[in-house]
Specification:
alpha/beta, 12 strands, eight-stranded mixed β-sheet
Length: 357
């Protein structure tokens, strides 16, 4: 059954039409039931229909299918994996965090989508309906890569897939009150930029559903203009630098990809200040030699390590928007935790903002 859902996004009168195709749970990714594949790839897939072509990504969840109407669900948590794309670990550790909080598990839906890369498609022999991205592209909303001679229908932004996923959650859970999108590391990069770029949360909030974003320990952040912190001060100004690309997307709003072009940078700046965003930083995530730390000149202009970059970004938001931004965007520091999604999710602050607030 195919349903057309049309969203009208105000501000720039942007119109998106997304066709949803409902899919039964189970082994829908073309893999044999050998008991091994689901250790790294979700055994259930989330699908959309684009111009008659099925496009899908794997996911893990505590419900059998996202397509089934469920009147008991009041809170949905989307857990976005890091650079290793280990959605299974992110799902398991988020579920454990929920159980630690002793929340009413029968009213909680947790889903961990998985954004694959080409080598995983090839290794697991997945069919042409499966989307995949470059290793860096899925983190920032780029279009998926081509696959096969009929792939022209299948290039989709990773942000569009999350738009579709959130819309599905709203449609099939009529008593939903809160959606939390939480990501760590590369997943934190994804959540930071998605929170700024997507118009969908505005539409969802008009339905009296709270949408909260939890950004955990990303390696870089999205700046809204070309200013950066002046060293040894709390001031921000346009830097004098040989790094000519420091304000290009993903670090700033120059040369943005297709998804952000359609939304428009002015709307991105305006809507981001209205979003409920929590920045959680591990106090010990300060390793200058971390193998996954962004050491590009654009990254280094944001700070020396992840913890410093997070503290600086929160100061920047106050400089850019004014002190009232603290009414919507908040920061939390978690002591004795480094670059660990498990410890961030299961921390007292992580559990509070994800399951209680």
């Amino acid at each position: 059954m195919i349903k057309d859902v049309t969203y009208f996004f105000f501000g720039i009168a942007l119109l998106f039409t997304i066709k949803y195709s409902y899919q039964d749970p189970g082994n829908k990714n073309g893999l044999p039931f050998n008991g091994n594949y689901n250790k790294h790839t979700g055994d259930t897939t989330f699908s959309i229909n684009r111009n008659g072509k099925m496009l899908k990504i794997p996911y893990y969840s505590n419900v059998k299918s996202l397509n089934t109407k469920n009147e008991s669900i009041t809170r949905a948590v989307v857990s976005v994996h890091g650079a290793s794309r280990n959605a299974d670990d992110y799902y398991t550790n988020m579920l454990t965090a929920a159980e630690m909080e002793s929340t009413q598990m029968d009213t909680l839906l947790i889903v961990a989508p998985q954004f694959l890369i080409k080598s995983e498609i090839e290794k697991l022999r997945l069919n042409g309906e499966h989307l995949y991205w470059s290793s860096g592209g899925w983190k920032i909303g780029n279009l998926s890569k081509d696959q096969g001679p009929d792939s022209s229908y299948g290039r989709i932004s990773s942000f569009t897939m999350l738009d579709s996923l959130l819309s599905r959650l709203v449609k099939n859970n009529p008593n939903l009150k809160t959606i939390v999108v939480s990501g760590h590391s590369a997943g934190g990069q994804f959540v930071n930029r998605y929170a700024a770029a997507s118009p969908v949360p505005t539409s969802i909030e008009k339905m009296e559903i709270t949408v909260r974003f939890v950004v955990n320990n990303p390696s870089s952040y999205l700046y809204l203009d070309d200013t950066r912190k002046v060293p040894d001060t709390d001031h921000f100004q346009t830097p004098i630098t040989e790094c000519t690309e420091y304000n290009e997307y993903k670090y700033g709003l120059d040369d943005v990809p297709n998804y952000l072009i359609k939304v428009g940078v002015d709307q991105i700046r305006n809507q981001f200040k209205e979003r409920e965003v929590v920045y959680l930083l591990g106090e010990d995530d300060n390793d200058l030699n971390s193998s996954s730390l962004d050491r590009s000149c654009g990254g280094n202009l944001q700070g020396s390590h992840r913890f410093e970059r997070g503290i600086t970004y929160y100061k920047y938001l106050q400089s850019y928007y004014g002190p009232h931004i603290k009414n919507k965007h908040v920061i939390g520091i978690i002591s004795n935790v480094g670059h660990s999604h498990k410890e961030m999710f299961q921390s007292e602050l992580g559990r509070y903002y994800t399951f209680l607030k």
